Amino acid sequence: LKLISPSQVQQAIQFVDSRIAEMPENEQIDARLKFAESLRKLTRLDNSYLSNAQKQSQVALKLSQQSKNSIATSRAMGQSGRIFLQNSEIGKATIAFEQAQSVALSYRALDLAYQWEWELGKIYAKAGDTRAMSQYKAAVDNLNELRKNLIAINPDLQFGFQAQVEPLYKEYLELLFKEKQPDLEEIIKTNEKVQVTELENYL
Fold it and tell me: In terms of pTM, does the model score above 0.90?
């Protein structure tokens, strides 16, 4: 990508944007969120992609609200939160994650809720905010319920994201150990989840 000039990159982004705009609304929302995530990851090479990522996320948010697609609205809010966070706009990121969490919980979208609770937990933990514990616990509880549902539907589905969620359990454990009076029952229960996850990853 470093061999491509900034003007060529911008032209490519505009081309993709114009093609996405031709899609039906529901497909467009999903495509814009995926495009925003791709651009966000590219900021590791060039930070100028971040503004374009936020633009895609905001358009997706507007479309999802217009179509009253609450799940997509939560996804778009959360995506915006991650972009704000990557740009060190902690206040805006926190608000975006809180809004995304609220929408996800109102529709029992646990696959989204635990992600936004996890993001909030990390923000609060870094700031030394006591709200970190409640967010991490909510994220772990919702993830546990989600995993049970996945196993009930299709046991094979759970293995696709074990490596992604294992850090959540470990970060929660670290937080529990830092408490003045650690909840031993919760520590044991969470540690068992870590061990099960590690075993599932190995198998």
Answer: no
